């Protein structure tokens, strides 16, 4: 991994043009920043080799990033000792350019500001050309109320406006993934899809992406894979517990992961 330059491999800016189509096996996963973080990340690392591109959220400490990079020669993040936004991208193929776009600070004030939430854009140079991946984590709605008059709606709307600007300024095939902290049936989410021109690859799917708890037995789907110029087949992963190195069973996170097989309608991008 490189220094504060944030990307540990890079390629020149410019359009890739390679013959033949590929399927990109993508994973998005909120890894949970608290608890047995390092043992869980080590267990997660053993499962990442099946993917081509991995987008992680809540990987907050730069010293923990090497725990998950073993299967990947390429990738990047921003900041040290804290990772900006907790966002990390890993890839089998070269990555570059890579950028971090901070969301605006909108009240109410909250400790979540310390995470410096935003969106990470990464151009992945696949064997069939360039694919832009936007890895993001929006602020939480602490009331679980996504109605227009809720105090957190303005926060998320400002973040979605920033995200929409990034997306509409980016050409070519694109995937927006991560923990949006928005249920798919909310007006805010539907408005974002309309404004950004994205397709919800899990439209019509039922069930949560956040692990149900006694205090929240029926959470919505908060994690998403949204695309433009791509088709996708998705499935939930990491729903079951795993064995940590010391033999203890543990869930990898309070979220499930989403795996997506991304393809393009044509033979080149």
From TrEMBL:
Q: Where is the Endonuclease/exonuclease/phosphatase domain?
A: 27-255
Q: Which superkingdom is the protein from?
A: Bacteria
Q: Which InterPro entries match?
A: Endo/exonu/phosph_ase_sf (IPR036691), Endo/exonuclease/phosphatase (IPR005135), Sph/SMPD2-like (IPR038772)
For this chain, one GO molecular function annotation is:
sphingomyelin phosphodiesterase activity
Protein name per UniProt: Endonuclease/exonuclease/phosphatase domain-containing protein
Traced from the root, the source organism's taxonomic lineage reads: Bacteria, Bacillati, Actinomycetota, Actinomycetes, Kitasatosporales
């Amino acid at each position: 991994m490189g220094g504060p330059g944030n990307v540990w491999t890079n390629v020149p800016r410019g359009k890739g043009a390679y013959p033949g189509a590929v399927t990109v096996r993508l994973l998005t996963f909120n890894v949970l920043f608290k608890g047995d973080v390092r043992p869980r990340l080590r267990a997660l690392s053993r499962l990442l080799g099946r993917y081509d591109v991995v987008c992680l959220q809540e990987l907050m400490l730069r010293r923990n990033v090497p725990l998950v990079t073993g299967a990947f020669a390429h990738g990047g993040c921003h900041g040290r000792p804290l990772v900006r936004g907790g966002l990390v991208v890993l890839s089998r193929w070269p990555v570059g350019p890579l950028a971090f776009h901070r969301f605006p600070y909108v009240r109410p004030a909250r400790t979540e500001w310390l995470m410096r939430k935003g969106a990470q854009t990464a151009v992945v140079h696949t064997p069939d050309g360039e694919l832009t991946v936007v890895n993001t984590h929006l602020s939480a709605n602490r009331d679980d109320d996504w109605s227009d008059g809720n105090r957190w709606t303005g926060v998320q709307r400002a973040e979605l406006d920033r995200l929409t600007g990034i997306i509409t300024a980016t050409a070519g095939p694109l995937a927006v993934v991560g923990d949006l902290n928005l249920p798919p049936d909310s007006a805010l989410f539907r408005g974002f899809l309309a404004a950004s021109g994205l397709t919800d690859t899990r439209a019509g799917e039922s069930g949560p992406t956040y692990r149900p708890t006694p205090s929240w037995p029926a959470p919505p789907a908060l994690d998403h894979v949204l695309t433009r110029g791509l088709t996708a087949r998705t499935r939930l992963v990491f729903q079951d517990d795993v064995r940590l190195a010391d033999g203890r069973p543990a869930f990898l996170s309070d979220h499930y992961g989403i795996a997506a097989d991304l393809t393009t309608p044509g033979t080149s991008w």
